[in-house]
Amino acid sequence: MSTFLIFIAGVLFLGGIIFIKPRAKRELMWKTVLNWSLFVLWYAITWTGISFVYINASVGHVKATSTAIFLFLGISVVLAVVLARLLGFIGVKKASNAVQA
Amino acid sequence: MVEKIEQKQKLGMNRRNFLKAGMAATAMGVIGAIKAPAKVANAATSNVNYSAGAKGQWSKLHPEHNYGGASVRFAENNDQWLGTSKLVGTVKNTNEADMGFNLARRGLISDRAHRGVFNFVPKHPQGGAISATLGLVASEAAVDGKPAPEKLPIPDPEQMSQHIRDLAYFLRADEVGIGQMPSYAYYSHKVNPTKNLTYQPVEECVYPVTQRYPYVIVVMVDQHLETMLGSTGYDGVSASQSMRSYHATANIAVIIAKYIRSLGYNARANHAGNYMAVMPPLILAAGLGELTRTGDCAAHPRLGFRLKVAAVTTDLPLLPNKPIDFGMLDFCRVCGKCAAECPSKAITHDKDPIEYNGYLRWNSDMKKCTEFRVSNEEGSSCGRCMKVCPWNSKEDSWFHEAGMWIGSRGQANSKLLKSIDDMFGYGTEHIEKYKWWLEWPELYKIPASIPAPAPTAPPAH
């Protein structure tokens, strides 16, 4: 199972790069760097959390498992929302809507 | 003429090729120099058909000692330090009759302890079965004897040390180390047999210890993580956990001692059934651990103090390890979880170690600890401190290794690790799926009175 998770993690990392590449590059260099840095940070925290939860749950550490779900996956969701906003996946009004308004 | 010139050019060497050849020759020389010591060692051991392990490696089966992620530094074993334990005066050899359980047998702790010490292990059938098996290898004939009259050829001390470590791993030791034997670790007097302490004056039960060997081999066996995760630390399996490691280390030590004597050298096994020395200083001397807040327990970087040890004292020429420092003292200074959780309140809350018998240690109340362990009526003995210690309560995983690395790097980092440990609830949980043993609470009462001495066995014919 852990080998499978590592494989999936690798595939999703590459998939994520391909997915955000068109939106990550900005005119200002620091914004491009910020996008990629946030992606790597979000990805690392998410999989750290998944690995932590998986191992603790399989051993039977109940409190560690539940705490890790809130801690790691909570941080992961927050970072994902920030990253999605920066990349323009959410929170950007469509041009047509803006005209109608 | 033209052909001759071309031939000369072909045979000649330009500057670049000359440099290349020089570099190749230098590289071959370096490789040869590196390989040479191994060849010399091989030559020395060819008569025992032993190919020498690489210089400096721990052993062939475990080339690196597994410290479990902890950041480990090396310390000294001299007249001022034994590893990270500071010697502040003369460390006196102690009398085995003054050790905790023997004080209980002599009636010097309390009436409850005096009665309870008789059955605190065998009152649980499983603990009793394991300790009875330990007894089978506890006689003087099992632990000691005369060496073979002729010495067999053996490798040099470094290779022999690797070989002895491999033998210990082969015999299923979880860890093994070799140390320079501190002479103060020997008992001044040994009790034999301990049960006589209840019925006879102490002077009639002891004899002076005069044996002195320069080296000690220490073997460790884990007390079993999953069992500890499923236990309260003071239920029916507690003594079984100790006995599991005691009987396993005893067997390993007895075999190694017998093997060494067969090679023509002196060797004596010291184990829970028959000690001639105190174990914690030997753990320190063999580079296997540091003292902890509990006072008597020495922790290994990977196993914590979830272990028991046995030792072989010997004059077999060996190369001792250096004692280690992985920040345990700093960690124990800021943690104190064992003291907070101890059911008998025996473990001190002092911030720093204090002087005790010529060295510094946390001076926990051995009598309180002994009384609780021998008179615990909720189970058999106690190992609650071992269960809750952040250093002990973990399975092997990348984040626990990371935690150990953090915890081994000073007091600020230790505080962080302790906070994380509390946040995730490690140590104080009871994981029901691992509770595999049976409980008989009706058997856990301490005896109403001290049993009469067993009749002397008739002489064998």
Short characterization:
Chain A: Keywords: Membrane, Transmembrane, Transmembrane helix. The complex is a heterodimer of chains A (101) and B (461). With 101 residues, chain A is mainly alpha-helical.
Notes on the structure:
The complex is a heterodimer of chains A (101) and B (461). Chain A is mainly alpha-helical and 101 residues long. Chain A has helices spanning 2-24, 29-59, 62-87, 95-100. Chain A starts with a helix and ends with a helix. The model of chain A has no long low-confidence stretch (mean pLDDT 89). Chain B has 461 residues and is of the alpha+beta class. In chain B, the strands form six sheets. In chain B, strands 5-8-12-9 form a four-stranded antiparallel sheet, sandwiched between helices. In chain B, strands 2-3-4 form a three-stranded antiparallel sheet. A two-stranded antiparallel ribbon of chain B has the order 1-13. Chain B starts with a helix and ends in a 38-residue tail after the last helix. Chains A and B meet through helix 2 and helix 3 of A and loops of B. Chain A: This is Reductive dehalogenase membrane anchor protein. Chain A: The chain crosses the membrane at residues 6-24, 36-55, 67-87. Chain A: Keywords: Membrane, Transmembrane, Transmembrane helix.
